Amino acid sequence: MLLLSQAAQADDVDLASPGEASGRLETMVVTASPMAAGSGGYGGSLSLLGGDDLSLLNHSHIQQALVRVPGANVSRGNGQEYLPALRSPVLTGAGACGSILVMQDNIPLFPAGFCNINELLAAHTEQAARIEVIRGPAGTLHGAGAMHGVINVVGPAARSSEGTSARVQGGPEDRWKLDLRSNGRALGESEITSALSLAHDGGYLSQSGLDQQKLSLVFRSAETGDETRLTATNLEQETAGYIVGEDVYRDSSLRRTNPDPEAFRNVRTARLSHRLKRVTGSGYVVDLTPYVRWGDMAFLQHFLPGQPLEETGYRSAGFRANIQAEVADSTRVTVGLDGELTGASLHQSQRAPASGSDFLRETLPVGRHYDYHVEAGLLSPFALVALSPSEGLTVEAGVRLEALRYDYDNRLLPGRTREDGSECGFGGCRYSRPDDRSDDFFNWSPHLGLVYEWTPQQQVFVNLAHGFRAPQATELYRLQREQSVADLDSEELRSVEIGLRGDRERWHYELVGFGMEKRNVIFRDADFFNRSGAATSHQGVEIALGYRLTAQWALDMNASYAEHRYRDDRLLDGVALDGKLVDSAPRVFGSARLRWLPDEQSSVELEWLHLGRYYTDPLNLHSYPGHDLLNLRAQRDLGAGWSVALRLLNILDEWYAERADFSNFGGDRYFPGEPRSVYGEVALRF
Hints:
Blueprint: E1 2-3, H1 10-13, E2 44-49, H2 51-57, H3 63-66, E3 75-76, E4 82-83, E5 100-104, E6 107-108, E7 130-135, H4 139-142, E8 149-154, E9 164-171, E10 175-186, E11 190-201, E12 209-220, E13 227-238, E14 243-244, E15 264-279, E16 285-300, E17 309-328, E18 331-350, H5 358-363, E19 367-390, E20 393-410, E21 431-432, E22 437-455, E23 458-469, H6 473-477, E24 479-480, E25 491-503, E26 507-524, E27 530-548, E28 553-566, E29 571-572, E30 575-576, E31 588-596, E32 602-611, E33 614-615, E34 623-624, E35 627-639, E36 642-649, E37 657-663, E38 667-672, E39 677-685
């Protein structure tokens, strides 16, 4: 069962006639269950950001799009960086990125066990056909990492009928974007599409900015229907760090400063996949997608003493396969197998002595801190069955088993010594290297969903789900202080949700309540050891509403209320964490949009964004008050393929923070939001 949010389908609201309303529940999705005939057949919560919404947004950062998804609270950093949140607090820490699975065209962007907290910068969202977001655990469907949810970017389709298009946008701080797309035929009647996105950002903060290039190629065979996709991305970013000081984001003389002008992040990625789908003589549907991935990153860790350089890389190959069969009039079965092999490396080095105290200079030596290679293998079978025991009732159940193995090869001396084996003072060097080892993780994920359709446009659902994530390689092998082995367990999350959704003549809605418990949470303790055993709870309500006021006016909104609390016996500064709210987790956030279509050639949208107050430290002693923003966007079709657009962001010129945090070393720190800004766009289709 699919929970299709109003906010995510706003582009369907404006012109939908009463007879078209029920079509929303039949929207086809690729992230959901392979047995779902349409959106109404999926047993969980899923939101869609359609192509019309993405075109109107023409986002410079993925946060501007995902703010329309209930339960998604992406915390924007500098440049293209961000911290994700999906029915969760904002996720931080070495392996927190493993809690949300990020994909493009149903292929995970990064290998299992080697996630990146900024993964979506490697997705070609600028030319996406749509973005699909599963809210809540989806381990049975997608396996490793789909613990809090899934974000899947659906790339452009190969359609020769769409011709060629060009779009250019300009804005403040020497910003510009160029999107080009060409559609045509090749090898007879086969179709091919190429999409190129270029961007430059001079940076709002001092000595920051970026250059970014993304390319997607799609080939669809006329003979077999097979689809081959290639995506490549390159990012060269001059990164700005937090500005430090209480409410400093309100200080006009300091809010544009950059305390880390030397910081940078360079990322290159590429993915190649080939999907084939066949129907056998027995009626079985066979779906197979083999793929290969490649990626490299160089990242100056400006937030650490000594500012070490991190260099990572991976090469991986895998496949996703399933067979679907209708074994009876009311019973459908899917069995599948996912597999992947990865070779990945991490190298950390420091070029100059650390500044500060004698302790820092002695325990953070110049030279290599880590240099290791990991071979990883993943094998994950799953099975799903969908039953319709009575009219209007659908039950789906499934289970996935997953085996993940790491073979770790340390290429430096083990222990907490310098690169040459000499001892650091003050008890030893900060960074500790485990000896060569292998680690195996076995997980299973059951799922049970029920949807009852009491009218063709009204549904109720109950969903019981389980998610998991194995420890990431960096949590196991990038140790500190006296820790020589990280004995970690997989994190697990159990979830129950119940909801209502429907489409009526002029309005549609969804209301979802959920409760989740997470255990074996991985954390770094006061001794800088990576440990398992923490626990958290997550309860909340998500709502999305849409109302077509007239043929020209439509109103829609999405909102979330949730409490995320610590549920274990840890102490911090002698104070129990149990029952306290998790930091970086506002109770309330959401957005609303009023859309006006004055004629068939024009579209105007006024957007309100709300972010509530949240604590910035685990003891709930420091907080950020939240903010409200207004944005205005307009498009106009000029005819003959030409169109123009105007975007006015932060209309009221509010001083706010994209992210607020508290550090025991520096105190309150922020990524400041930008003032009022205007962007203009010109586009041509031919």
